């Protein structure tokens, strides 16, 4: 089995790859970790990870520029039901639309929009950067064993506003609730960075690698 981490020019993926490699080794899993820009690798992967750092439009443009990648993701994830994890902007790209600077279509996998954070406390800075507690809104296998109130690391200025509350898996508070994780069917996404979230992140990655939705 292979976990494919999609490389579409969204930043340095080494820390993500190292976290997945560590989870594979510590759990004794027989899996390969591949950082790839090749559609064929994604199409054949058992698990797919879409990271993302930067602006929504830039990330979407970079993803669509990879030959055959959009089709491979749709075939493997939507048609094939392979476990999918979106991280930060990779999670946001699952939305219907992103409204960063202008209106940009997302992948449309989870209904909702990506909008600017507007904390109700003017002393809170944007971007939201640093450690914050997770508040679970419903159980999910990828969060198994992660305690209510566990801390995770965030860096973002925009957030995912889900059209359906049932798609929100976890929230965090930053001058009001913000979406920390979304999910439906074989899709899971985190606004926080599991690869930077120490024990919490490693537990989530390990759960994802063992997930069979």
Describe this structure in words.
With 213 residues, the chain is of the alpha/beta class. It has a single domain (2-209), classed as Rossmann fold. Helix content is 26%, strand content 30%. It is built from 6 helices and 14 strands. It has helices at 14-27, 39-44, 56-64, 69-79, 89-92, 198-209; strands at residues 2-6, 32-36, 47-50, 84-87, 97-98, 104-105, 112-116, 128-133, 135-136, 151-156, 158-162, 168-173, 177-184, 187-190. It has an 8-stranded mixed β-sheet with strand order 2-1-3-4-14-13-12-9. Strands 6-5-7-11 form a 4-stranded mixed β-sheet, with helices on one face. α1 crosses α6. The longest helix has 14 residues, at 14-27. The two termini are 16 Å apart.
Topology:
Blueprint: E1 2-6, H1 14-27, E2 32-36, H2 39-44, E3 47-50, H3 56-64, H4 69-79, E4 84-87, H5 89-92, E5 97-98, E6 104-105, E7 112-116, E8 128-133, E9 135-136, E10 151-156, E11 158-162, E12 168-173, E13 177-184, E14 187-190, H6 198-209
Parallel strand pairs: 1-2, 1-3, 3-4, 4-14, 5-7
Antiparallel strand pairs: 5-6, 7-11, 8-10, 9-12, 12-13, 13-14
List keywords for this structure.
single chain; 213 residues; alpha/beta; Rossmann fold; eight-stranded mixed β-sheet; four-stranded mixed β-sheet; 6 helices; 30% strand
| Rg over alpha carbons | 16 Å
The third-level CATH topology is Rossmann fold
Helical residues, percent: 25-40%
Number of separate strands: 14
Number of domains: 1
Brief synopsis:
The chain has helices at residues 14-27, 39-44, 56-64, 69-79, 89-92, 198-209; strands at 2-6, 32-36, 47-50, 84-87, 97-98, 104-105, 112-116, 128-133, 135-136, 151-156, 158-162, 168-173, 177-184, 187-190. The protein is an alpha/beta fold.
């Amino acid at each position: 089995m292979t976990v494919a981490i999609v490389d579409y020019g969204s930043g340095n993926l080494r820390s993500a790859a190292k976290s997945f490699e560590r989870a594979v080794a510590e759990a004794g899993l027989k899996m390969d970790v591949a950082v790839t820009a090749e559609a064929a690798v994604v199409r054949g992967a058992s698990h797919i990870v879409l990271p993302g750092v930067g602006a929504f439009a830039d990330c979407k443009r970079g993803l669509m520029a990879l030959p055959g990648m959009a089709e491979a993701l749709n075939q493997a994830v939507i048609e094939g039901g392979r476990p999918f994890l979106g991280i930060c902007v990779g999670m946001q790209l699952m939305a219907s639309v992103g409204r960063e600077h202008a209106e940009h279509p997302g992948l449309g996998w989870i209904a909702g929009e990506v909008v600017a954070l507007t904390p109700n406390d003017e002393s809170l800075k944007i971007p939201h950067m640093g450690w914050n507690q997770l508040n679970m809104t419903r159980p999910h296998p990828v969060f198994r064993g992660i305690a209510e109130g566990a801390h995770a690391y965030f860096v973002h200025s925009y957030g995912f506003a889900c059209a359906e509350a049932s798609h929100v898996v976890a929230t965090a508070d930053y001058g009001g609730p913000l979406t920390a994780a979304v999910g439906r069917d074989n899709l899971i996404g985190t606004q926080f960075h599991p690869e930077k979230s120490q024990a919490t992140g490693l537990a989530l990655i390990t759960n994802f690698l063992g997930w069979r939705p």
